[in-house]
Design goal:
Blueprint: H1 7-15, H2 25-33, H3 36-48, H4 58-73, E1 81-85, H5 92-100, E2 107-111, H6 115-125, E3 131-135, E4 151-157, H7 160-171, H8 181-198, H9 201-217, E5 220-229, H10 234-238, H11 243-247, H12 249-257, E6 264-266, E7 276-280
Parallel strand pairs: 1-2, 1-4, 2-3, 4-5
Antiparallel strand pairs: 5-7, 6-7
Helix pairs in contact: 1-3, 4-5, 7-8, 7-9
The chain binds S-adenosylmethionine.
S-adenosylmethionine binds next to helix 7.
């Protein structure tokens, strides 16, 4: 597997004085108690193997650090307006925004379909210091909510795959909105595998996916970026996903957008193109 990061680079970052600033107080206490050797060993596993959530708080530290670096790479500045698609109940992006881009006018919006995960997201972010809006609608339709307002950054944190699975589920009439996401996930993975094997995968998702990206560019300020981070979760492998479906997802989308006039892809040092995609709105 191509490593998610360079071990030397991320180790140096981990030893910096302000390394733990991305963590909450309790996470920080635990992080500080882990020995340097143990941290490096965990980081090495994290970047060279399918991602396993259980290596807390190193998991939080690594992914928050990487997202902060991605925001810095595109020169995001406060006050910032961020739109995330398919966040589920994950509060990583609003957490970073609230901490490093805090400003009375900084604003975070997520578009998320599943009701239970949306409720969990609202609960987790209830006391965050920035304005948070949750749109319970599909990423494909989110442009309609923005009128003439445009955002500074659009992010997909490991959610290209969720969007693909949901498009496939829709085709088979599976309700992904009112179901327990984790209960239906094995079926979504099975259908995704079948579509991949029988060749209908691209037919079902390509046009709608590209339409979604085009529509999102309409609500992104000129010169700003759509960023996607996509990697392999061990949990998806355990449920039987054909590994290359998710490991190739960024390059599949890259192939699709080529020649489609959907922004311009920009590559940044330190962001492995297999896992990261930066699309600039020109
Ligand atoms: C497992 S959660 C996402 C977790 C998060 N991306 C992460 O890995 O950190 C999946 C969520 O994506 C949402 N989703 C999938 N396709 C979507 C779409 N087209 N628009 C909005 N939300 C979508 C689902 O409804 C569900 O709430």
């Amino acid at each position: 597997m191509i490593p998610l990061d360079n071990l030397e680079r991320i180790t140096a970052k981990m030893r910096a004085n302000n390394a733990a600033d991305v963590l909450d107080r309790h996470e920080k206490e635990v992080f500080m108690q882990i020995s340097d050797d143990e941290k490096i060993k965990t980081l090495k596993n994290l970047i060279t193997m399918p991602v396993d959530f259980t290596i807390w708080p190193m998991y939080e530290w690594f992914f928050r650090t990487r997202w902060l670096e991605a925001m810095q790479a595109v020169n995001l500045a406060a006050p910032a307006s961020m739109l995330e698609l398919a966040s589920g109940s994950t509060d990583m992006l609003p957490k970073i925004l609230g901490k490093f881009y805090y400003h009375p006018k900084t604003r975070y919006t997520t578009a998320n379909l599943n009701k239970q995960l949306t409720a969990e997201f609202k609960e987790k972010t209830r006391y965050f210091p920035i304005k948070i809006d949750v749109l319970e609608d599909a990423a494909q339709k989110i442009e309609n909510y923005f009128g003439n307002n445009k955002v500074d950054i659009i992010v997909f944190e490991h959610s290209f795959n969720d969007i693909v699975e949901t498009m496939i589920a829709d085709k088979y009439g599976i309700d992904t909105v009112n179901s327990n996401w984790w209960d239906i996930l094995p079926r979504l993975i099975k259908l995704t595998n079948e579509a991949y094997i029988d060749g209908t995968y691209e037919v079902i998702i390509k046009d709608e996916f590209l339409q979604m990206l085009r529509s999102l560019l309409n609500i992104l300020k000129p010169g700003s970026f759509i960023i996607s981070h996509q990697f392999q979760y061990q949990g998806d492998l355990d449920l039987g996903i054909i590994p290359e479906i998710w490991t190739d997802l960024i390059s599949t989308v890259r192939k699709w957008i080529k020649g489609e006039n959907i922004g311009t892809e920009v590559f940044f040092d330190g962001f492995e193109p297999n896992y990261w995609m930066f699309i600039k709105n020109i």
